[in-house]
Amino acid sequence: MIYRIEVTPRAEKDLNALAVRERQRVADQIDALGTDPRPQGCRKLKGREDFYRIRVGDHRVVYRVEDEVLLILIVRVGDRKEIYDIIRRL
């Protein structure tokens, strides 16, 4: 099954703030989620139903999996040092 990938406006802004090389690495990993929404190394976020994160170097991609409609919603992208504080406020 192929999942459709949508990016929230906030996550799009996060992506655009990255350097070109990092942005491409993160975008490649996001694209790969379409065929495997729970790749090896992904982690389910505690206290958040259906929210996961993947590591891409020093960055984290936080996303939601909606299996019923085959959708991956990219919620935030950020540096590993800051992203967990950000997602606590979601």
What does this structure look like?
- The protein is an alpha+beta fold and 90 residues long.
- The protein has a single domain, classed as YaeB-like fold, CATH 3.30.2310.20.
- 30% of the residues lie in helices and 32% in strands.
- The protein is built from three helices and five strands, in the order βααββββα.
- The protein has a five-stranded mixed sheet with strand order 1-5-4-3-2.
- A hairpin with a 6-residue loop joins strand 2 (43-44) and strand 3 (51-56).
- It is globular and about 35 Å long.
Question: Low-confidence parts lasting 5 or more residues at pLDDT below 50?
Answer: none
Q: What do the pLDDT scores average to? A: 93
- The rounded distance between the terminal residues' Cα atoms is 29 Å
Given the structure, what is the number of helices? 3
CATH architecture heading: 2-Layer Sandwich
Order of helices and strands: EHHEEEEH
- Overall spatial form: globular
In the CATH hierarchy, the third-tier topology is known as YaeB-like fold
Number of domains: 1
Largest sheet, order of strands side by side? 1-5-4-3-2
CATH superfamily annotation: RelE-like
